[in-house]
Write a structure and sequence with these properties.
9-stranded mixed beta sheet; 727 residues
Length: 727
Amino acid sequence: MFLSVIVPVHGVQGYLRQCLDSILEPGCPGLEVIAIDDRSPDGCGAILDEYASHDPRVRVVHLEENVGLGEARNVGLSLATGEYVWFFDSDDYTADGAMLSVYERLQETKPDVLIFDYARSYWHGKVQRSVINKLFREPPAPDTFALRDRPSVLQLMMTAWNKAIRREFLVGLGLKFSGGYYEDINVTYPILMAAEKLSLLDEVVYIYRQRRRGAITRTGGKKHFDAFKQYERIFAFMAQHPETDQYRPLMFDRTIWHLLVILGRGDRVLPEDRERFFGEMSRIYRTFRPADHTLPEDVQLAAKYRLIEKNNYRAFETSKKLNERRIAAKKQVRKYRGKARKAVRFTKGKANGLRYRTQLHMAIDENLAVYAAYWYRGYACNPAAIYEKQRELAPHIKGVWVVKRGNAAKMPEGVPYVVAGTPEHARLMARAKYFVNNVNFTDDPIKRKGQVHVQTQHGTPLKKMGLDQMEYPVGANDMDFRELIDRADRWDFLVSSNPLSSEAWDRGFPCGYEMLETGYPRNDRLVRATAAEKAALRERLGVPEGKKAVLYAPTHRDYMKRFTPQFDLRNVTEAMGDEYVLLLRAHYFYRAKDRGLPEDRIIDVSAHPSAEDLMIASDALLTDYSSIMFDYAVLEDRPIVIYANDWETYKRTRGVNFDLVQQPPGVIAFTEEELIDAFASGRAWNDTAVKDRAAFRARFCSWEDGRAAERVVRRVFLGEQLPKPAK
């Protein structure tokens, strides 16, 4: 082995596949990936095992307890066999072609340490190269050098992931990653000072993901005090290696710079700990300042040095607070004005706006819940299933639906509702405790402290969703992703139907909600469906006795303006044979209309309010890329046929989360002839199709046991904790 990439893994299921795919680049010889599952609480372990099962370069170690990033790296190092090791964070990824660039540079220069550049990838789509990338070029660097010849290298990012290290060199120094925060600096600084041969690769190799949430060093707490022990370890190493004395002034400045950064970020050191942190920084300053050290030329920085030396926290903090107060005052004015404008917009008028703002100052009704589905279309989907179970398990809570005026007459008898845009709607949004929707509520209502939002979604995401759509402008259709994330920031709970969904939601909506891995509440009904229910629904829909009813439910295509069947309906239904009848279910984005179809072979059920009715009534499903396939697979004995005539176009324009062609839920057809044959020959029911459907069910329907709605209600409305589902 030439290169061992060590990847500790914990809580990154939404990003892990991209990480591994980027590392496992074809054409990089002598590569091994050692993945350490650090007792990850999500689906990471299963993802790692999946990769190891089909790529011999991947080796997985599942730790019995969580040991933290530093110790997980040490475990990986003990198992590595490559000439070089590269410590890789599992939520990041490499730039295109970077693996081969690293390999070639290592072969050319044979350094002790190779340092390469990186770019920050922000959640909103911006990718920016490191701001100090000029240090790779100015002045021009030889192929190899020692730190004394180029001390500016110590100003580069001191992380483990932007370096490939000769394994025997690292092991020979006796260095190991420590526990706690900033666990890599007590390795990365010493190896640069001890190395005889350093080399630079002036190329963006590593993409450092700037996550909106999840980075432990960007959260406040006492763990940031770990930085002091880490720097003490560095100076202890230098004491044992006198040849590093020449770097003491520079190392001292880097230490104080970093500690000031930690203290200066408002989200790191807790307010009650700031003075103690400053005192520890003063101790480090007085203990390790070299005798020949000179103050920085920067006047403001030099003043900070003097305050640190004297441990004058009061003067240090006073100047900081004065500046923060000026900034906070400006923000508060803007925030107040924004809230007032939102209140007026939501209620469409000054009078209603005043009433709404008044309601916002009244107590939240702890026993009031708001339900909605599909942009106020009516009573449907996961919210309807949760509503019914909430009435059973938490009857003290009153659930009220929000519907459009034109859909009010379609509401089931006995279900309370208000019409969207009315004063009653405004009062409901201002005062209710709970909010349940399968899409986002409008932007205007203000979420109050104490209100609880439940986002159920309305399908397993075969297609890319949320921030993942940024790479697919046709599907995104000028979406404002900042506004999208602002809406998702209101969610307290997000329902997931299966592990694929959890991965996609983590990645597409990186917000602070709790993931409810319960299965889909709307599918509880499919689990409990009976033959009698099926017969009654078929009679109501007009399915002729003795016919096989095939539910045709195509998805919306972002590159198409209106519903157009992907095959000739008349031709296909006639060729399928007299034993079949087609139930046509156009996507809800399209209005139901008279399509002039032969009623003896095709029943247009596009206007039917319940997809669950149609699934139970049918004998087989015909779809393309619709999420209905994941729901239909819950019906264990019914075949699924995928018509994928434009699969490549769909992938390019919308993006997908897994390869449907390689893992279909049954027969997959690419032409009309293949589609006809799937039914006319009975191939949709053969052993191969049954086997594929069983594998699909095992992967995507394992949480569907008929109790999904109950789990949601118990967690959200009753406050009970849920067990983690099997992955």
